[in-house]
Amino acid sequence: MNDHDAIGPMITQIGARARAAAATLATASAEAKENALNAAADALWDQRATIIAANKQDMAFGAQKGLSPAMMDRLMLDKDRIKGMVDGLRAVAGQTDPVGEVAEEWTQPNGLHIQRVRTPIGVIGVIYESRPNVTADAGALCLKSGNAVILRGGSESFHSSQAIHACLVAGLASAGLPETSIQLIPTRDRAAVTAMLQATDHIDVIVPRGGKGLVGLVQREARVPVFAHLEGICHVYVDGDADLEKAKAVVLNAKTRRTGICGSAETLLVDKAFHDTHGDVLTEALMNAGVEVRADASLKGSVAAQPDDFGKEFLDMIIAAKVVDGVDDAIAHIRQYGSNHTDAIITENDAIAERFFHQLDSAILMRNASTQFADGGEFGMGAEIGIATGKLHARGPVGAVQLTSFKYLVTGDGTVRP
Q1: Cβ-based burial of 268 (10 A; exposed 0-12, middle 13-18, buried ≥19)
Q2: For residue 1, what pLDDT is reported?
Q3: Helix, strand or coil, per DSSP, at residue 387
Q4: pTM, rounded to two decimals
Q5: Looking at the predicted structure, is the pLDDT value of residue 82 above 80?
Q6: Fold observed for domain 4-227+398-410
Q7: Cβ neighbours for 178, distance < 8 A, ≥ 6 positions apart
Q8: 234-373 has which fold?
């Protein structure tokens, strides 16, 4: 469908179906949701050849568009990555159902017994770029938390997302849940994004998953509430009391394991004391691994860093690097250039680590660990919709629990207010 005039009515129709499905999901049993996710996992694995064939179409489209190697890596699906999606679906299926959980309860002096109970949000719109696995992750987490979801994948992953979505629908059907619980927008037309952002009657919250351009567009134009997922300008600070081998291992992994994900390190900060002792060992290791190091004058690098290299999300085999004068200088740099996503410190000094953790307010802070662990699956959530960098409602990896709201259940015994 390419007719702009038809986009609005299509989103309205999809939204109405999602709202109806959400009413059913709100009271669906934990067993039904678990069965649907396990059946979807079975379908994904059974249909892996079909999914890979669809992905080849998307890879050809991406190459034609001139996507970078890192973006092509984000787009690519193979047997191992499909197995990862299958494992993620099963992990989410096996989690405790958050709906109905009593998060807190107490009794007032007047005898009123009050419970705060987790409830689904309703209908969630997820707008994402490139990575087709988000189709499975978002569908699974929304279903687990009792929400209907409307998925709008990137144009690059159009065929892959459709093949994955068909498996999720098969899972819903096998468990007797509404097939409209997980819907995929069937067009590449960007007008669908605008229509979703205005659909206040049908969508309760929008979750953008993508680069700065997409998130900025969503935040500017959305009339529906948004879970902010900003770019991942992740820093690794190597303190003067860092262990050399730990520092080398973490820095290399944080940058090179997968450069196209939001948890990839984009800036290396080296304490002057560490540099005085160990020299350029870290930047040399990065360059030997094929990374372009954009370094300040104090460090050996591939090229000289420019001012706008700091605070940039490269999503590629590129890193900015700078010498800083202690943890306070590192903290000041991260406050100025970071995106409140994920920042790491490498140190054996407990007091310095505590200062780093206390003074920074990133959604995720790490010590002696790679920023590539900034992932809901690695946090035990099975999967994630993304890393929320805002401060309201959800923050950090957004899993099933973070996709719930709550209501208060109040019980009295003929209790009246004086």
Answers
A1: buried
A2: 42
A3: strand
A4: 0.81
A5: yes
A6: Aldehyde Dehydrogenase; Chain A, domain 1 (3.40.605)
A7: 20, 21, 24, 25, 148, 172
A8: Aldehyde Dehydrogenase; Chain A, domain 2 (3.40.309)
